[in-house]
Every structure is written in structure tokens, then in C-alpha cells.
Amino acid sequence: MMSNTSERKYEDFEPVSDLLSEKECDTLLLYLPGFRKEQLKVQLTTSRILKISGERPIGDNKWKRFHKEFNVPSNIDLKDMTAKFEGGILYLRQPKLITPATTEQKHDEGKTAAEAEHPAPQPQHEAPTEGKTKQKDKDDNMEKKEKDETPAKDHEGSKVKQELNEIRKQVGGRSELFKELRKSGTQKRLAVYVILILVLGFQAIKMFKSFTKVEEKSVMEYDHHEL
């Protein structure tokens, strides 16, 4: 009589696998719907080969089976590898070895994160205040106005000088008349004196008005600058 094992009919299938790679650990996932934990077998050889197999009955002496092999990378710590079967998925956790390069990389990453959280203070430039800006604009306007008014002041000064020269000429001419009047009669001298006084008074009034006009303009400009 033949044994039950020899009468089994097997159907091979290829389970779907996936690999989740993280900084400190890789996790191999094997999707095995319909299987139970006791129907699976996991082996790890000294040559870093991970062998996973399993079989389960599907009825009428028929069985479904699989066999998978995976190479374990050299940066995986074989002593800390673990397996867990849950919800039809086999989880094979493969922690990575801690090397000096990995430690230094973690240190650099921690330093970068700290610098990003607390950036170095940047030099601050003093922003111009509103008062300083207004004062600068006021000074610029005053300087521009002084430049515009300088030709007018020079023109007024030249005009006053011309009037003074004219008066000097007239006074000089009157001096010659005084000399002639000494030789003339009394009534004639009085009439000429009156005319000279009127002319000189008129010139003095005109000169006084010119000086007053210039002085008033200077006072107004001074008051404007003070404001």
C-alpha cells in the first residue's frame, strides 16, 4: 500500500515579495495568502542564503507549495534577523550592521538637523528710520533752493552796487556845483541848494528801499530754513 505522501499532487506557485529598505533595517515581505505559520519553513545558511519554503493542502490530496531563496547583503547583521507571520504576510526583519562610516553619517545628519533648527544669526543692517529720511530730504531741498536762489541774490547785489556807483557819480558832480555856487549870488545859491537836497533825498530814499527789500528777502529765507 502506498503512503499518503506519495499520492500527493503538488502545485507550485511563485509568491509575491517586496523589500522595504530603511536607514537601520531592511524588511523582506512575502505574501502567502491561505498559509498558516506551521506550514512555513525559514532557513539561513552560513553562506548568507535565506531559504523560505512552505506547502498547504487545497483538497483532493492536492497541495500548493513554494520555495524561495534570497541573498542576504553583507551589511546585514545575521544574529539579529527575525521572522514574523501575520495576516498572510511573512515579515523578515534584517537589521544593518553599525560601522564607523554609518556612525559618522548619523553624527553629520544630526549636526545638519541641529543647524537647520537653530540657524546661525545673520548680520543685521540698520534700516534708515523715517526721521533720518525726512531730515535728509529736507537738507537736499534746502541745498537745491539755495543753489537756485544764488543767481537772484547776485543779481540784487549787482543792482545795489550799480545804484551806489550812480549816486557817487551824482554826488561827485554836485561837488563841482558847490564850487561854482560859491562864486554865485546868495539867492541863486539857495535855489541850487534846495534842488541838490531834493535830488540827494530822492536818491537816498531809493537806495534805502533797495537795501530794505534785500534785507526782507534774506529774513524770509532764514525763517524758511528754520522751519
Explain what the structure shows:
- This is SHSP domain-containing protein.
- It is a single chain.
- Strands 1-6-5-4 form a four-stranded mixed beta sheet, with no helix packed on it. A four-stranded antiparallel beta sheet has the order 2-3-8-7, with no helix packed on it.
- It folds into two domains: 89 residues, Immunoglobulin-like; 90 residues.
- The longest helix is centred in the last third of the chain and has 52 residues.
- The chain has three helices and eight strands.
- 49% of the residues lie in helices and 24% in strands.
- The model has no long low-confidence stretch (mean pLDDT 76).
- Helix 2 packs antiparallel against helix 3.
Q: Notable features of this structure?
A:
plant defense; 227 residues; SHSP domain-containing protein; 4-stranded antiparallel β-sheet; cell membrane; transmembrane; Immunoglobulin-like; alpha+beta; rod-shaped
Short description:
The chain is of the alpha+beta class and 227 residues long. It has helices at residues 100-117, 130-181, 186-226; strands spanning 9-12, 16-21, 25-31, 40-44, 49-59, 62-71, 82-86, 89-95. The protein folds into 2 domains: 9-97, Immunoglobulin-like; 137-226.
Give me the secondary-structure topology.
Elements: E1 9-12, E2 16-21, E3 25-31, E4 40-44, E5 49-59, E6 62-71, E7 82-86, E8 89-95, H1 100-117, H2 130-181, H3 186-226
Parallel strand pairs: 1-6
Antiparallel strand pairs: 2-3, 3-8, 4-5, 5-6, 7-8
Helix pairs in contact: 2-3
**Main β-sheet, spatial strand arrangement:** 1-6-5-4
Q: What kind of sheet is the major sheet?
A: 4 strands, mixed
Oligomer: single chain
Low-confidence stretches: none
